[in-house]
Please model this.
Amino acid sequence: MRIMGIDPGLANTGWGIIDFDSRKTQPVSYGTVKTLSDDRLEDRISRISDRIVELAREHNIERLSIEDIFFAKNEISAIGVAKVIGSVCYAMHTINVPVSVFTPLQIKMAITGNGRAEKFQVQEMVRFLLGLKEIPRPNHAADALAAAICLANMGSSLQKIGLKSRRVDF
Model:
């Protein structure tokens, strides 16, 4: 199965694509979509969604995993991130790609086994699990790969351990 993970952000949205079968997980591609703070909000959100759809089509994505907002210290940036999440979820709906939304805690648990793992620990496990020589850069791309691995690793196990991803249906 080909899975795309998203680390949503208004300035930088990380994306990562993996191939997953029951035996192994392999990296396909990763990067970020950057927007400029001087651009209009609707243009920034549109650019992110359009690029994610383009990547999903180019790589024949079957599922998408996106990190949700768990808590926010800065309400203004949280609102922007929430708008990006909604836009990406809707865009995936328009091309019939199912979306699962995971909290940062769920992603950390799926990758490291510790919901309070530090960012570096998660990124190091992403490197290890994908057999990469270095931690993927930029950090947003590594976080997106973690979201993709989370869906791959937890998809069939979620119900067994009592966690649930939220599938977004419109």
